[in-house]
Design goal:
Elements lengths: L16 H9 L6 H35 L2 H50 L2 H5 L3 H13 L2 H28 L1 H7 L3 H38 L1 H6 L3 H26 L2 H26 L4 H42 L21 E8 L8 E8 L4 E5 L6 H8 L7 E6 L2 E2 L5 H5 L2 E4 L8 E2 H6 L7 H10 L3 H6 L7 E2 L8 H14 L4 E5 L7 H15 L3 E5 L11 E6 L2 E6 L1 H7 L2 H13 L1
The chain binds adenosine-5'-triphosphate.
The site of adenosine-5'-triphosphate has 11 residues, from helix 13.
């Protein structure tokens, strides 16, 4: 599968909306108590709403007619008290529900984050980080209103409609039927709109994702953008994506705008019918003016929840696409996962075997083909070869970041597929060219190698790789704050910190992928001593283009044409006068 860039919309699977919504609402199960409390409060609010028109009818028919001022005061006082209670409940309800829905969003976001962390490189290779960010942040946020209103609107409004309907039918059947005459038409209209609106909101979320991906990409690479003065180009691309985003929004919102008029028209016609019939009935049948006044209040109480429900339905349609995108990720199984009954990898000694290994990132392109080698415990192996030959791939396979297509990889005679990924990777130390530092202090960054390391252990590790000296020269020493990716430090300094981090993790197998490429010759000499200490007593793979750095390796593998074409010590390979010899001579000549 090709990489899904900011230019392409993501593919989405068709899932039944009902299934998505049930799955979303299932998150409420953990908050049953709070939801019952909210529903209880809602019950009080509904009760007060229903009692209000009845009090009004009593006031009109019994007290105003009879000129009973005392009675009027009592009923007025009662109305004030219950309405104050209702107001208080409304406030409480909003706070309680916001708390619940925020907690649910946190649960979903946490689950999504943890799941994403388990997904394999393969998943991330095919998606820009910005699109993942869009799901974890934007799509989860889009569920806030749906969750909030599900409890506040869905159940209470349904209850209100039923209670009001019963009261209306008890009061007068004909008036009740008149009030709801247009309801079936409204339901049909909404169903028609939602089928179209859902598609459009799906497109909107994808466009939103593209915009996120591009923003993230260009700001991650802002140095490149500015050094090539490509700001105009990126702004134009951004504008293009923004236009698509906006158009998709307008196209979707247009349909939403049909909802309100439809409800309002039905409400209006329903009320007109009630007044039309009601006024006639006052003359011919025994309908009191109090009943008609109460009825007109009940019409409002009948249509308001319908309005709320339509609004909620509208929100569902608008945001269900967000939920679909979240569940799609949660349903993505990691390509690389533990087999059933995977064992814990015993403490690694360091013997590594590649036995007829074949692998390709894409099915049709083999990056390694039938590769076999055996490495003894404690050996240092250097991998050299042209760019794109497959050196990094070999070490990626050893850490099981990808699964091989054919063959078997063993460590100490154990097939790495048979052991848990955690127990395997926790014993490997991987240092790449792209040293990633996190926002925080230098100390925090080194501690990443061993989360419970003491300050002394951190300093010791830094000293071993000769990072201590430069760290102490910084204003705050080990507490110096580095920003994202460590941009406040030089590339070489970042690498020294990463060395300390790796050393602290005491890996059983060490992988240095072009790790010394950015260190100047002076620092390299210092680091070389640190590395030698690091390499001692552990099997190590060193990938380096600078051949001067790997001459001391126990064996050098020359990787090219999907296989290992030469292997031996530096001296052996020079004597053989093959590929390595040519590579070495070319570099040697270039230097001299
Ligand atoms: N994630 C990936 N998805 C698809 N193809 C990939 C991926 N990573 C690497 N490749 C391809 O696999 C081949 C081997 O890549 P690899 O990174 O192992 O080479 P390398 O020898 O380490 O190169 P370099 O010296 O430039 O780091 C290359 O052709 C590369 O384009």
């Amino acid at each position: 599968m090709a990489v899904n860039s900011f230019r392409e919309d993501e593919q989405s699977k068709e899932v039944l909306k009902k299934v998505t919504l049930l799955r979303l609402f299932a998150y409420m199960k953990d908050y049953k108590k709070q939801i019952v409390a909210i529903l209880f409060i809602m019950g009080i609010i509904i009760g007060v709403n229903v009692v209000n028109p009845i009090l009004m009818r009593i006031a009109v028919d019994d007290y105003i007619k009879e000129n009973n001022i005392n009675g009027l005061f009592v009923i007025g006082g009662l109305a004030v008290v219950i309405n104050l209670v209702s107001r208080y409940c409304m406030k409480k309800r909003i706070i309680m529900m916001s708390r619940v829905s925020n907690k649910i969003l946190m649960d979903i976001r946490q689950e999504l984050y943890e799941h994403l962390q388990k997904l394999s490189f393969n998943f991330f290779d095919k998606r820009p980080a910005g699109k993942i960010l869009a799901r974890v942040i934007g799509d989860v946020n889009s569920l806030k209103n749906v969750l909030n209103n599900s409890v506040i609107t869905l159940i209470p409004d349904f209850v209100t409609i039923i209670v009001v309907l019963i009261i209306m039918f008890i009061m007068n059947v004909r008036l009740a039927l008149g009030a709801m005459a247009f309801l079936p038409l409204l339901v049909a209209g909404m169903y028609y709109i939602q089928t179209r609106a859902h598609k459009r909101w799906q497109i909107f979320r994808k466009k939103n994702s593209n915009l996120n991906a591009y923003t993230h990409e260009t700001f991650s690479g802002v140095r490149v953008v500015q050094s090539f003065t490509a700001e105009g180009y990126t702004s134009d691309t951004f504008k293009g994506l923004l236009d698509e985003h906006q158009q998709s929004f307008i196209s979707a919102i247009k349909l939403n705008n049909f909802f309100w008029p439809m409800v309002e028209v039905s409400w209006g016609i329903g009320s007109a019918i009630v007044y039309f019939i009601g006024v006639r009935l006052i003359g011919s049948e025994a309908i009191t003016s109090g009943t008609l006044i109460a009825f007109s209040a009940f019409i409002g109480m009948f249509w308001q929840p319908i309005m709320n429900l339509s609004n909620f339905y509208n929100q569902l349609i608008t945001n269900v696409a967000g939920a679909e995108r979240i569940f799609e990720i949660l349903d993505t199984e990691p390509d690389i996962k533990d087999v059933n009954e995977a064992k814990i990898m015993p403490t690694i000694h360091g013997q590594v075997t590649f036995d007829h290994v074949t692998f390709g990132y894409e099915d049709h392109i083999k990056v390694l083909e039938d590769v076999s080698f055996e490495i003894k415990k404690g050996e240092t192996i250097a991998l050299v070869g042209p760019t794109g030959a497959g050196k990094t791939t070999i070490v990626n396979l050893l850490s099981r970041f990808y699964d091989i297509n054919e063959g078997i990889i063993k460590i100490d005679g154990v097939d790495i597929k048979e052991v848990t990924i955690e127990s395997l990777r926790s014993q490997m130390g991987i240092m790449t060219q792209d040293t990633f530092l996190f926002t925080g202090s230098i100390k925090d960054n080194i501690r990443y190698g061993k989360l419970d390391a003491t300050d002394e252990e951190i300093i010791e590790a830094a000293k071993s790789v000769h990072a201590h000296e430069f760290i102490m020269k910084l204003d705050d020493g080990y507490d110096t704050k580095v920003n994202e990716r460590g941009t406040k430090l030089s590339v070489g300094q970042r690498q020294l910190i990463a060395f300390a981090r790796t050393l602290l993790s005491k890996p059983k197998i060490l992988i240095l992928d072009e790790a010394t490429s950015s260190i100047d010759t002076h620092t390299e000499r210092l680091v070389q001593q640190g590395i030698e200490a690091l390499l001692q007593d552990r099997t190590s793979f060193v990938i380096a283009h600078r051949l001067s750095t790997i001459q001391k390796a126990d064996r050098i593998f020359v990787v090219d044409h999907a296989n290992i074409l030469e292997s031996g010590t530096h001296e052996d390979l020079l004597q053989a006068q093959g590929i390595y010899y040519n590579l070495y001579m070319a570099q040697f000549e270039a230097i001299s």
